[in-house]
C-alpha cells in the first residue's frame, strides 16, 4: 500500500517537473546564445504561426515571465496527475492543443503589427478550470475539495481573461480556460467517479424494481389469505329421540 502511494506521488511530481524543466532549458538556450525564439510563438491565422500551437508554451519573454508560470504549472500539474492519473496525460495534451488552435484562430494579429503569442499561461488557465469544473461535473466530494483548493490558490487569475493589459495575451488565457472546461466536460465520465447508492440510480430502474417487489408481495398475500370464492356446505342430520314407554 505504501509503495503504490509513494509511486503515485512520485509520478504526480515527475511529469509536471519534467515539463517545467524543459521550458527552463529552452529559456537558458535562448538567453545563453543570444537568440530570440519569439517567432516560435503563435502568429494567429498565418501558416507560419501554426507551429506555435506546439512550441509557444516553451517560449517566454523574460525571467519574470517564466518564473511566474513555473510554480502554478508545478502545483496544478501535480494535482492533475495525482487526482486524475488515468486521464492526466490525455487531459494535458488536449488542453494544450485545443487552447493553441483556438488562439491561432481568434488571437490578436494584424499586418501592421504582427503579434506573437508566447508562454505556458494557456496551460495554467486550462488546468485550473479543468480541476475546478471536473469536480463540479462529477459531484465527487474529494474532487470538489480539489475544486475549492484551486479557487483558493488561483481564483484571482481569472481576471487575466479580460483585456485589461494590452501587453498580455488575455486571449490565450481565455481560450486556455475554455479549453479546460471543454476537456472537463468531455472526460466527466472517465477517471475517478463518485460512489453511487441505490437511491442515486435512474428512476426507470427504481420503478422496475418496485414493480417486481409489489408483484412478489401480492403473490405472497394471496397465498396467506383464505379463498372466499369457494362455497362451503354444512349438512345437519336431525335424529328424533325415541319416546320412552309410559
What does this structure look like?
This protein starts with a helix and ends in a 22-residue tail after the last helix. The longest helix is centred in the first third of the chain and has 31 residues, at 2-32. It is an all-alpha fold and 246 residues long. It is elongated, with a radius of gyration of 35 Å. The chain is 59% helix and 0% strand. It has a single domain, classed as Rhomboid-like (Rhomboid-like fold, Up-down Bundle). Helix 3 runs antiparallel to helix 6, helix 4 (88-106) crosses helix 5 (121-138) and helix 5 (121-138) runs parallel beside helix 7 (170-186).
What number of domains?
1
Order of helices and strands: HHHHHHHH
How big a fraction of the residues is strand? under 5%
Average pLDDT, rounded to a whole number, is 85
State the name of the first-level CATH class. Mainly Alpha
Q: How is the CATH topology named?
A: Rhomboid-like fold
Structural class: mainly alpha
What is the CATH architecture assignment? Answer: Up-down Bundle
Q: Specify Rg, calculated over alpha carbons.
A: 35 Å
Bin the helical content. 55-70%
Low-confidence stretches: none
Tally of DSSP helical segments = 8
Can you summarize the main beta sheet?
Answer: none
What is the tally of beta strands? 0
- Rounded to the nearest angstrom, the distance between the terminal CA atoms is 109 Å
CATH superfamily: Rhomboid-like
Shape summary? elongated
Amino acid at each position: 500500500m505504501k509503495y503504490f502511494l509513494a509511486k503515485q506521488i512520485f509520478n504526480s511530481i515527475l511529469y509536471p517537473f519534467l515539463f517545467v524543466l524543459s521550458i527552463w532549458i529552452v529559456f537558458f538556450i535562448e538567453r545563453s546564445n543570444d537568440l530570440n525564439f519569439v517567432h516560435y510563438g503563435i502568429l494567429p491565422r498565418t501558416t507560419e504561426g501554426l507551429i506555435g500551437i506546439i512550441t509557444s508554451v516553451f517560449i517566454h519573454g523574460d525571467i519574470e515571465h517564466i518564473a511566474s508560470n513555473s510554480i502554478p504549472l508545478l502545483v496544478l500539474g501535480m494535482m492533475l496527475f495525482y487526482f486524475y492519473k488515468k486521464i492526466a496525460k490525455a487531459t494535458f495534451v488536449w488542453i494544450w492543443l485545443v487552447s493553441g488552435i483556438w488562439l491561432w484562430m481568434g488571437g490578436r494579429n494584424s499586418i501592421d503589427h504582427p503579434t506573437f503569442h508566447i508562454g505556458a499561461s494557456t496551460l495554467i488557465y486550462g488546468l485550473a478550470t479543468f480541476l475546478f469544473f471536473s469536480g463540479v461535473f462529477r459531484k465527487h466530494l474529494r474532487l470538489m475539495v480539489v475544486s475549492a483548493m484551486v479557487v483558493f490558490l488561483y481564483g484571482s487569475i481569472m481576471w487575466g481573461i479580460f483585456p485589461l493589459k494590452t501587453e498580455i495575451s488575455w486571449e490565450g488565457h481565455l481560450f486556455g480556460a475554455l479549453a479546460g472546461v471543454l476537456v472537463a466536460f468531455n472526460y466527466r465520465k472517465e477517471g475517478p467517479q463518485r460512489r453511487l447508492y441505490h437511491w442515486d440510480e435512474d428512476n426507470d430502474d427504481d420503478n422496475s424494481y418496485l414493480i417486481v417487489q409489489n408483484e412478489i408481495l401480492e403473490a405472497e398475500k394471496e397465498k396467506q389469505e383464505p379463498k372466499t370464492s369457494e362455497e362451503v356446505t354444512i349438512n345437519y342430520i336431525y335424529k328424533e329421540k325415541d319416546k320412552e314407554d309410559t
